[in-house]
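Async update (no meeting this week)

Hi team, since we skipped the sync, here's where things stand on the single-chain job. The sequence we agreed to prioritize is pasted below, unchanged from the tracker. I ran it this morning and attached the output directly underneath so nobody has to dig for it. Comments welcome in thread, and please keep replies under the output.
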Amino acid sequence: MKKRIKSESKADLQSVFEQLKSILQNFEPRLLLKVDEPGSYSLDAPYSEKYKRELFFGAAQIKKNYVSYYLFPVYMFPELLKGMSPELKKRMQGKSCFNFTSIDKELLSELKQLTKSGFERFKKEKLL
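Output:
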């Protein structure tokens, strides 16, 4: 019985990963695809004159017991987190990482908006 629960859990994590990856994929045309393999997806901003390198933008990765969603703009511009719901805040680990074992429509929608705000901020700062 434990094996069945564990395999369902892995399937659940895969589903969560696909949902989180889909948020980032919306921005792929303007960003650089760095990793796209099973359980790991990552995007960078193009080369920045200001920082003299490409900047990490975001990623989704399946870990052992959860899926991590990294959003670097909120690390660089923490004011983007103003008004974040307590539910999303509970998912934060560190300054720019959110961990999920499941995800509901409201959190997904809020994370989409936060990612869009981060993308817009990168544009405003001429990092894209």
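Quick observations from my side:
The longest helix spans residues 2-25.
Residues 1-8 have pLDDT under 50 and may be disordered.
Reply here if anything looks off.
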